[in-house]
Amino acid sequence: MKKTAIVLSTTLGLALATSSVVSANPTTTPNGPWVQDEQNLSFSSFMTNEELYSTLQKLEKASHGKMVLDKAGESNDGNAMYVAKYGDNSPDKKKLLVYTQIHGNEVLGTEAAMEIMQKLNSGGKEINDILDEVSIWIMPRINPDGTMNQYEGEQYPARYNHQTWDPEALGLPSDTAAPWYYNADGSERGQNNNERIVYGIPGYDLNRDFSPNYDFDLEEFAAENPEELASILNNPKTNNPSSTGFEVSPEAEALTGVVADFDPDVIIDVHHRGFNRLSEDDNRSVSIEVLGQFTTKPFTDPFTGQNYSIDDDVLTLSKQVTVAAYDALQIGKSSFGAIQQYPQVNYPGSGLGAFQLNGAATMLIEVKGQTQTLGQKQNGMLKQTVKAPIYDILAKLADGSIHDVDASRYEDIPPYYGGIDPSDPKGTGF
Ligand SMILES: [Zn+2]
Fold this sequence. Notes:
Largest sheet: 8 strands, mixed
Radius of gyration: 21 Å
Bound molecules: zinc ion
Helix content: 25-40%
Structural class: alpha/beta
Number of strands: 18
């Protein structure tokens, strides 16, 4: 099993006692968890890819046939990507897909996913009844390369994958612009070093690398239309956050393949973000931020000219799922219930953006705290903020009551108010 100790990095000569990790900050309740802005944590204690794989294999074995573990693909560095399938893709079933850690430094969703599988394995009648109605597929750790990223000889999970932009390999001129979400110098936000850590391995933000056209094949398009591809990449009007991703990465391709095969009704993507207070009047520390809508305008694919927009029914179900998640965590006036709506985006090239345009209802869960500031404080509580909504949505999909949720209450989820961490006044994008 994985170790749980927190090891403080001494990279910058800081010799800090573990107790200082929970230093008090009086501006929200509860205080933290966070660390002082000049500190860094070491991540050698987090689950490695090998540990993840062996845990998944044990879960498959312990499931006695309930779960089938399939390899969905391989990362750019050749690390396996698995999908754990509870139930098949039959159109007679309701279908939920959960994926985690598309940003390698956002680790807790993967740990929560393991615990969900454990519960599905060991569940009694109630869970078995749910699984009779609902198939749930879980894809943990979409970014295994970023997870195992190293900095100064220690594991330092990064947001990005490991992959170099190589236009000539696609038959394009060497000066062809990279996709806008390319991280050329291999750098990561840090709490020190002028808020930047340079680990030096280029890569992509995988959660911007999706195309609403599931059939899009970059290599194929490049071989047939190199000049058109170069001109789309070189044009800021077609290579920007509101345009498509380019499916450069094998990771985005693998996830898209699973979505196309499973054709889920609902997809949940788990991330982390910064720290926020709930509102001016309510100083609770935000537990999760949620979002159910990922594009605000119809999208025209620059490669095919095809138009995409979100179906009304899909948007309604997305909002119902998001409201159900919100309700699942209202436990008294605890910090669990301090939930905000993630600021609205228009990202057809994000995973959920592309999937929602293809007819899946979608929800983003953003757990508080980036790995670099979080360490492993309050892990149990934070994992609960992922698990409780997913269990509730599973149950509501099974008995159909998800369709009775009042979608209009989506608008009542408190809006984003502001950051709390002085080094991260605006929080962090998903
Ligand atoms: Zn993220």
